Every structure is written in structure tokens, then in C-alpha cells.
Amino acid sequence: HIEHLQKIAHFHFEKKINKNRCMTFLSWVVVSVTFNGWIYYQSSFYYMSNETRSWTESRRYCKESGADLIIINNREENKMFGGTSAYIGLTDSDVEARWKWVDGTNMTSGLWGPGEPNGYIKENCGVVVDNDPRWPTLFGWHDVLCNRDLQWICEKRISQLILP
User: Fold this and answer.
1) Domains of the chain, earliest start first
2) I need a labelling partner for 113 at 20 to 30 A (CA). Which of 68, 92, 126, 131 fits?
């Protein structure tokens, strides 16, 4: 569904000092499909990794990039990165069977695959699976071992870019 992501905003911060006050302006210009591997779509920037890491290392990568693992809000966002399996920002590692997003909110409705989540206390990290040629019959969200090396998806919301 990359064809829906043909617009990306290239942004830069411009600081101006006016009477000893510093104001920050966020400028948007539509430039191309991607910007340094990040894709812009509906008020967020997304990054789909090409490498694999554990859930914790994947999240660390996102955080170091000023983002976090993706929080999936709807089916459209769930389908954006088809053709693979990737970590999402969902875990039940604090309390078993209480799935939470990386921002601390409870998962209220999920897009779990059939029979998922099924890992009980061993599989505590969420993965989105969509048209992955390695597992052609799997789809939806799955719980997996957090130390498994998989790709991941980072998300940075526009609201995180605007400075006070």
C-alpha cells in the first residue's frame, strides 16, 4: 500500500529571535516518497527496518531516532507495510494477558490473527504479519518471543515534532 504513501513531508526547523523570544516554525514541503527511509502518511512518519533485531533492540533504535515502535490505530495503518512480519509497539511483559502499547495505553481492540495471542508467559511481544512469503497463511497480529530477531516499524507522530 506504498502507493497511498506518495506524499511525504520534508521538514526543517527555522528559529527566529524576536524581542529576546525564540520561536520555532515547522515548515512542510511535499518532496518525494521517502526521506532517509522514513515514509509520511496521515500525520506520522514511519520507518520500516531492513535489518532484524530483538523487540527491545528494535525499540531502542526507534527511541534513538526520536520515535517509538508503531501504535496501530486502524486496519489501514495495519496494512501499510505488507509483505513482511515486523515488531509493533505492543507487549504484555508487565502483566500477562494485559496488552499495552509503548505509550502506556491499554490495547482496547486488536487485529489478532486466528488463535492469537497464544504464547502465554513466553511470548510477550507483538508482531504484525501481512503477506509474508515465509508464512503465507498467517496474517494479523501475533505474540512472539521478544528475543526473536525480526524487522520492526517505527512511528513518529507530527505532534511530537512541534516544539513549545
Assistant:
1) 47-161 (3.10.100.10)
2) 68
Identify whether the C-beta of residue 84 lies closer than 8 Å to the C-beta of residue 151: yes
Coil/strand/helix, residue 22:
strand
- The stretches in the chain having pLDDT less than 70 are 1-35, 160-164
Q: Which of 157, 159, 164 is nearest to 67 (CA)?
A: 157
Tell me how far apart the alpha carbons of residues 91 and 144 are, in angstroms, rounded to a whole number.
10
Asked, as a colleague might, if the bond just before 136 is cis with ω within 30 of 0, I would say no
Question: Which residue's entry shows cell 508487565?
Answer: 94
Q: What's the pLDDT tens digit per position in 36-70?
A: 788 888 888 999 999 999 999 999 999 999 999 99
DSSP character at residue 120: T
**What is the DSSP-derived secondary structure letter of residue 150?**
B
> What is the DSSP secondary structure assignment for residue 46, as one 8-state letter?
E
Which conformational region is residue 79 in: left (phi greater than 0), alpha (psi within -120 to 50 degrees), or beta?
Answer: alpha
Q: Which amino acid, residue 22?
A: C
